[in-house]
C-alpha cells in the first residue's frame, strides 16, 4: 500500500513526445536549438538571485568550460535518450543532486525551466529555417513539463500559452542589473565566442553577441547595445542562413551532443561524475 502522504509519481511521457523532441534537437534544428538553449541559460543570468548563486559557487571563475560542458551533457542525455531511459533518469538524478545542495526558490527553478521551453520556440520563429509546428511546440512543452515534475518544481503552467505568459511576466518583474549578472555574463560570452574565434579576436565578437540581445536583457547585464548596422548585419546573416537551409532541408544524420569531442572529457565521461559535488 502506498502511504497517503507519498509524493505523486511524475507523469508518464508519451513515446511520440520523446521522439519529436529527439528529432527536433538532433535532426531538424540541431544547431539552432543548441544556440537557443545557450541563450536560454544566458537570460537566467539577468536575474540577480540566480547570477548571485552562480557567482558564489565559483564555477564560472575556476572552470567555465567544464560547467558549460556538464550542463550541455546533462541536457543532451535527457533529450537524446528520453526522460525515463536509464541514462535520462541518471542525468535528471545528477541534476537534482546538484540543485539539492543549495536553497533555490521554486520561482527561480520554474523560470529556468520556462526559458528552456520558450527560447527555442522564439529563436526558430526569428532565425530558423521554419518555426516549430503546433504539434512540435506542444511536444516540446510536454517534454519540459514532465522534466520539471521530475525536478520537483511546483506550479508549472498547464499549457504552452500560460508558460509563455508566465515567462514574459517573470522577466518583466525580475530582470534588473547586478554586478554578478555582468560577471557571469562576461565569462559566458567569452567562453561561447572561444568556440569559434582565437582568443585575440574574442573582443571583436562581443558586439555580435550583443546584437542578438533585446533591450531588457542588455540593461540587466549592463551591456551597451550593438551598433544598428551590426544588428542589421547579424539579422541579415541569420536570415540568409535560413533561406539556404530551407533549400537544403533537414539533416539526415543525427547530430548527437553526447558524442561530440570535448576537451573537458578527452576520454569520455560518466553521468554520475558530471557537475559539482560537495
Automatic annotation (TrEMBL):
GO terms for molecular function: oxidoreductase activity. Pfam families: MPAB_Lcp_cat. Residues 56-233 form the ER-bound oxygenase mpaB/mpaB'/Rubber oxygenase catalytic domain. InterPro entries: MPAB, MPAB/Lcp_cat_dom. This is ER-bound oxygenase mpaB/mpaB'/Rubber oxygenase catalytic domain-containing protein.
Amino acid at each position: 500500500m502506498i502511504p497517503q502522504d507519498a509524493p505523486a509519481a511524475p507523469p508518464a511521457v508519451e513515446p511520440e513526445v520523446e521522439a519529436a523532441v529527439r528529432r527536433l534537437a538532433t535532426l531538424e534544428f540541431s544547431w539552432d536549438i543548441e544556440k537557443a538553449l545557450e541563450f536560454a541559460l544566458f537570460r537566467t543570468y539577468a536575474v540577480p538571485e540566480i547570477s548571485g548563486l552562480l557567482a558564489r559557487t565559483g564555477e564560472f571563475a575556476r572552470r567555465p568550460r567544464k560547467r558549460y560542458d556538464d550542463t550541455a551533457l546533462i541536457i543532451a542525455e535527457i533529450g537524446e535518450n528520453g526522460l525515463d531511459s536509464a541514462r535520462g533518469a541518471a542525468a535528471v538524478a545528477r541534476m537534482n543532486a546538484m540543485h539539492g545542495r543549495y536553497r533555490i526558490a521554486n520561482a527561480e527553478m520554474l523560470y529556468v525551466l520556462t526559458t528552456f521551453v520558450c527560447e527555442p520556440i522564439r529563436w526558430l520563429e526569428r532565425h530558423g529555417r521554419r518555426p516549430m509546428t503546433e504539434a512540435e511546440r506542444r511536444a516540446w512543452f510536454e517534454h519540459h513539463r514532465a522534466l520539471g515534475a521530475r525536478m520537483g518544481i511546483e506550479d508549472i503552467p498547464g499549457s504552452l500559452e500560460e508558460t509563455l505568459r508566465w515567462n514574459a511576466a517573470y522577466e518583466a518583474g525580475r530582470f534588473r542589473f547586478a554586478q554578478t549578472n555582468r560577471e557571469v555574463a562576461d565569462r559566458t560570452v567569452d567562453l561561447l565566442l572561444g568556440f569559434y574565434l582565437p582568443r585575440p579576436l574574442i573582443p571583436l565578437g562581443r558586439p555580435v553577441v550583443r546584437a542578438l540581445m533585446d533591450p531588457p536583457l542588455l540593461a540587466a547585464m549592463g551591456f551597451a547595445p550593438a551598433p544598428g548596422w551590426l544588428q542589421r548585419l547579424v539579422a541579415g546573416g541569420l536570415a540568409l542562413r535560413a533561406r539556404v537551409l530551407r533549400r537544403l532541408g533537414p539533416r539526415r544524420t543525427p547530430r548527437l551532443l553526447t558524442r561530440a569531442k570535448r576537451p573537458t572529457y578527452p576520454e569520455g565521461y560518466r553521468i554520475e561524475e558530471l557537475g559539482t559535488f560537495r
